[in-house]
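in:
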């Protein structure tokens, strides 16, 4: 197991290096000068009237006057020292911005992951156990809808119906549950539904297929022949052996949740890292975009490592060399 974890960590490190290289050079291929965008939004002067010395000073201050390989090495060395650089647009340390925004995204992401796992696994198991019954007839078509529906369109539709027409839920913003728990839950309902809808549908479909495959096995027939209760057969024998492909899907769902946060947080005006990423891309704020993407990559890699390790506990036949 230790060898497996070390090997996966090394693979993850290589992936992080590749991700950092890709995002670093991709951002600099975008047209436009981030300093000109910054000055246009923050300076009262006309850009044509700005002396060239001011721009050169800013380039030197942010390290943009150095060759790209040197900028990349300086960025990586800064991260290793705990310094992710300064934002052009916000004028703050990138690490401080991420500490402010990241808990918001994680809070909504964890809620969406819990909802997608519990609702999806339960719906898929019920559809499989009651195959051909009314439960299966309802769950299966809904999973196709959930997989195909665009989450930004669903968010706008929910804002219109539940926010504007029925006035049931707040349409935008975020409140910490430590400040106002009730308001926080109300504000989180629509974003969490949008972020979890794909996970619910995909988990339900995978769980249904996995359970249908497992219940045909000989040891399940033996359990029924012994006269065991349905609850024992389902939860003790069927469910555990059905979870391995589903756990993989749940791990992959973390990346979909973080990716979906970009759209969801923009639609509902939530101050998370998804919205921060969108704003920073439009403003060519290199440092913020690089920091956000790198943090997302680290989270996804850690979740995938946890998923791989969990295989051993779910199926003792799996051994790591």
């Amino acid at each position: 197991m230790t060898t497996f974890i070390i090997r996966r960590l090394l693979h993850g490190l290589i992936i992080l290096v590749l991700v950092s290289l890709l995002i670093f050079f991709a951002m600099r291929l975008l047209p436009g000068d981030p300093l000109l965008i910054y000055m246009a939004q923050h300076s009262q002067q006309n850009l044509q009237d700005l002396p060239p010395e001011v721009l050169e000073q800013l380039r030197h201050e942010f390290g943009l006057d150095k060759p790209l390989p040197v900028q990349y090495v300086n960025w990586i060395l800064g991260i290793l020292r705990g310094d992710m650089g300064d934002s052009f647009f916000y004028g703050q340390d990138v690490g401080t911005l991420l500490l402010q925004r990241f808990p918001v995204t994680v809070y909504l992401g964890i809620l969406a992951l819990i909802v997608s796992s519990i609702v999806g696994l339960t719906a898929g198991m019920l559809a499989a156990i009651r195959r051909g019954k009314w439960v299966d007839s309802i769950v299966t078509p809904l999973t196709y809808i959930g997989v195909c529906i665009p989450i930004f369109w669903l968010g706008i539709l929910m804002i219109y119906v539940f926010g504007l027409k029925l006035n049931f839920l707040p349409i935008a913003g975020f409140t910490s549950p430590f400040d106002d728990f009730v308001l926080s839950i109300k504000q989180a309902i629509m974003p969490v539904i949008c972020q979890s809808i794909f996970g619910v549908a995909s988990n339900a479909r995978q769980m249904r297929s996995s359970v249908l495959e497992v219940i045909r096995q000989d040891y399940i027939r033996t359990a029924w022949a012994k006269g065991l209760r349905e609850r024992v057969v389902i939860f003790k024998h069927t469910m555990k052996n059905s979870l391995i492909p589903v756990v993989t899907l749940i791990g992959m769902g973390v990346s979909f949740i973080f990716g979906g946060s970009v759209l969801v947080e923009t639609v509902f005006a939530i101050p998370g890292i998804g919205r921060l990423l969108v704003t920073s891309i439009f403003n060519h704020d290199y440092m913020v975009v690089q920091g956000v993407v790198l943090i997302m990559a680290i989270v996804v890699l850690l979740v995938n490592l946890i998923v791989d390790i969990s295989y051993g506990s779910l199926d003792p036949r799996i051994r790591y060399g």
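note: The chain is about 75% helix and 0% strand.
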